[in-house]
């Protein structure tokens, strides 16, 4: 139990350190972005639908500071 908490804590800290470098609030013209996503659907139960995870990937391009486009593929 203690080992599991330690491993989870270390993994979380590594993820936060990796993401902190990419957290700049700057729009750079000509920049290409890659946006992974993960989530899920949870239904109430009386709709005859099954709960299901979902994931996707977005690819974007910044034309200038005000205009950009992004294409997203989702499963």
How would you describe this protein?
This protein has 75 residues and is of the alpha+beta class. It has a domain at 25-75. It contains 1 helix and 3 strands, in the order H-E-E-E. It has one helix spanning 2-20, and strands at 32-41, 52-62, 68-74. A 3-stranded antiparallel sheet has the order 1-2-3, with no helix packed on it. A hairpin with a 5-residue loop joins strand 2 (52-62) and strand 3 (68-74). The longest helix is centred in the first third of the chain and has 19 residues, at 2-20. It is flat, with a radius of gyration of 18 Å. The model has no long low-confidence stretch (mean pLDDT 85).
Tell me the layout of helices and strands.
Blueprint: H1 2-20, E1 32-41, E2 52-62, E3 68-74
Antiparallel strand pairs: 1-2, 2-3
* Overall geometry: flat
Number of helices: 1
Number of strands: 3
Low-confidence stretches: none
User: What share of residues are in beta strands?
Assistant: 35-45%
H and E order: HEEE
- The SS-based structural class is alpha+beta
Provide keyphrases for this structure:
75 residues; alpha+beta; 1 helix; 37% strand; flat
């Amino acid at each position: 139990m203690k080992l599991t908490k330690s491993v989870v804590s270390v993994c979380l800290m590594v993820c936060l350190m990796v993401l902190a470098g990419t957290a700049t609030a700057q729009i750079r013209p000509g920049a290409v972005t890659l946006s992974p996503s993960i989530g899920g659907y949870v239904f109430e139960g009386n709709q005859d639908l099954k709960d299901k995870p979902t994931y996707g990937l977005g690819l974007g391009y910044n034309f200038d500071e005000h205009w950009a486009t992004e294409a997203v593929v989702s499963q």
